[in-house]
Amino acid sequence: MSRNTQNQRPRGNAPEDTLRDGSLKASIWRNDGENGPYYTTTLARTFTNAKGQVQDSHSFGAGDLLRVGELARSAYHRSNELRRDLGREQTPDQSRDTQDRGQDRDQGQRIGRDEDRSQRQQQFNDRRSDASGPDHDLSR
């Protein structure tokens, strides 16, 4: 697989990076959202039509699927690199703000998982105490 190795950031409506494996390509796009920049990836198969024009298709033959999977894996890792590099470019205040939002989100997910776990444990205990009532002596 090859990679677009330009040191300068592309201008206009160009992908941040493009990974290739033969006629297959993964284009990684930078997007700006309300919570800051993020990356998306499009996968395509490049071909030349009957008129000699180069076009992209987003459908893949059975023989392409494993290569598409490996290309997607590489794009995943490259997107993470770009995101990490973006964090290094931010000012300390921007970086700290982004980290705080991420920690808040992670903390909220952790609390939700803990609450789910507590509810499941309580349901298990309730069922167990129901089953160990006067008709169901589990000590025998």
Show the helix and strand layout.
Elements: E1 2-3, E2 17-21, E3 24-33, E4 36-48, E5 54-57, H1 65-89, H2 92-131
Antiparallel strand pairs: 1-2, 2-3, 3-4, 4-5
Fold and architecture overview:
Helices cover 46% and strands 24% of the residues. The radius of gyration is 25 Å and the shape is elongated. About 5% of the residues have low confidence.
Short structural summary:
The protein has 140 residues and is α+β, with helices and mostly antiparallel strands.
Main sheet properties: 5 strands, antiparallel
Low-pLDDT windows of residues: 5-11
Shape: elongated
What share of residues is helical?
40-55%
Topology as a string of helices (H) and strands (E): EEEEEHH
Features:
alpha+beta, five-stranded antiparallel β-sheet, 140 residues, 24% strand, 46% helix, 5 strands
